Amino acid sequence: MTELYPSTPTALSRRTTLRAAGGGTLLLGLGLAGCRSAVSETEAPAGKAATEPRRGGTLTVAVNSDFTPSLLFAQSGQSLQHRLIYNTLTRYDDRLTPQPELATSWEYAKDGRSITLKLRTGVTYHDGRPFTADDVIFAVKNLQNPLRAAQLRATAAAVVGFEKRGDHELVLKLAHPVNNLFDLFEFMILTDRNSVEDAVTGKKLIGTGPFELTKWSPGAGLSFTRNATYWQPGRPYLDAVEFRVVPQADALLSSLRTGQSQLSYSVPGKNLAVVAGRPDLTISEYTTGGGAYYLGVNTTVAPLDDKTVRQALAWGIDRERILRQVLGGYGLASATPWPKSSPAFTETGRTHYTYDPGKARELLRSAGHSRLDLPLLHINLPGDTAVAEAIQYDLKQIGVQVTLQPTDPATAQKNLISQKMPGLWTMGHSFSQVQPSTLAVSAYPFNEAKNTSKFRSAAYTKVVREAWTTPETGARANSLRQQITDTLLDEAFIIDLVIRGSVQVAAKKLHGVTLNKFAYLNLDDAYLAG
């Protein structure tokens, strides 16, 4: 069997059979412009070369919102802890080449209609039960379940059959070729099939990961202890991990400065300068998994059903000011969702909408409007509020008065999924950092079949479906990606503003921390020195 439909932007010329190597953790950095202290897979974090891994200790992570069990299978701001409890089948390196995790090798059929996985042996769940092919079958079927909130359901649904060849070899049979199967494999957490209903209520979370959840205190945080039977020998180094919920920006900064916490991805961009000069803290930007800030538009609310009005909004927002003042310069102002590393990225697309309030007012007048009054929902966290306030200020200059509707993160995410947004909303999206087709078939704001904006187009559906089932390389793939981008820019039902990375603030004594493409925190190799 050969890999006819490669899973990376660069087609492989040899037969693809990948084997597990070592068990080391890969850092996934994509190198966006504006990175202040970017960390890459080939670059050791500060101080690592001078120290040897040290066993023991408790790492405290400051987060600005609580764990939401009902969103366990959806990628969101509450996904940071996933990789502590659960493993995935594979993980990407910084070139979108899949690397082994619980799948040790794989081979595609020549027609792209099946893939054979060899699974890691000797892996057990936290309750001692062995990991087998049945757990992979369950994980795929679980994401196919419409009762689960899960963005990659379309890709999971493409799997229409399973052939077990013993406990540790499995053939997945596909209804049609897809080019984002490894996005699914990195996104899909391998939960214990016997306790999944307890997991989605927060009662019991059992995985094969490096840490076991010992306590969830709603509103306060999560507690984890080291998994003594983890399949990677000698890992993890840490004895325990604590997630502390600190929603106020000042209190979160104080916890880092005083050493009460040693790691956070929740420091608002405008506050990063406060910690940038401290000798005991480091700032690193992972330009993967952070996604982008955007302005969403409900196309069923008049006059937002007119794309001329939507385009006016796109011209009326100063993206560079949001990047500078709200994100502290970490990221990339962009009218499209694609980071520079994406094969869908073009500079022309990135700069398609620049700040031009005069043009915005002209478009509104041409559509018959001199003033509009609209609601704007946003998450009531400091960074999100700052973005919403910047949008409010800019739109006021073109005659669009917006009323802010602050909403807690869990409710905002549920409204996004259930298509219950008002005329305008602003949030962050992900899924542009993996295979480009995934964004339009899986991300709630962009989904061609059912998106939060309630935008439908037969032409959009056609090009998205073709892009999803076409190999990722070659002229045809490039053309399809461009057509998707052109549709997003022209229809403006999602107005991208700033590509952002996950900015990590950490104690200098902390080493070996990584994130995967979906911003799952990986602490397999993490340790506290000194």
Structural features:
7-stranded mixed β-sheet, 6-stranded mixed β-sheet, 530 residues, alpha+beta, disordered N terminus
Number of helices: 16
Looking at how many chains there are and whether they match, the oligomeric state comes to single chain
How would a textbook summarize the main sheet? 7 strands, mixed
Q: Proportion of β residues? A: 15-25%
Distance between the termini: 50 Å
**Strand segment tally:** 23
Shape: globular
Alpha carbon gyration radius: 22 Å
Low-confidence stretches: 1-49
Strand order of the largest sheet: 8-9-10-1-11-19-12
Q: Averaging pLDDT over every residue, what do you get? A: 88
Q: Which structural class fits the helix and strand makeup?
A: alpha+beta
Percent in helix: 25-40%
Task: Describe what this molecule looks like in 3D.
The N terminus is likely disordered. The strands form 6 sheets. The protein has a 7-stranded mixed sheet. It has a 6-stranded mixed sheet with strand order 14-18-13-17-15-16. Strand 6 and strand 7 form a beta hairpin. The protein has 530 residues and is of the alpha+beta class. The protein has 16 helices and 23 strands. The radius of gyration is 22 Å and the shape is globular.
List strands and helices in order, with pairings.
Elements (H helix, E strand, L loop, with lengths): L57 E6 L18 H4 L4 E3 L5 E3 L2 E6 L5 E6 L13 H12 L8 H5 L1 E6 L4 E6 L6 H7 L8 H4 L11 E7 L3 E6 L13 E6 L3 H9 L5 E2 L7 H5 L4 E6 L5 E6 L9 H9 L3 H8 L5 E2 L13 H4 L6 H10 L5 E8 L2 H15 L3 E8 L1 H9 L6 E6 L6 H7 L15 H11 L6 H17 L2 E6 L2 E6 L2 E2 L2 E2 L5 E2 L4 E2 L2
Parallel strand pairs: 1-10, 1-11, 15-16, 15-17
Antiparallel strand pairs: 2-3, 4-5, 5-7, 6-7, 8-9, 9-10, 11-19, 12-19, 13-17, 13-18, 14-18, 20-23, 21-22
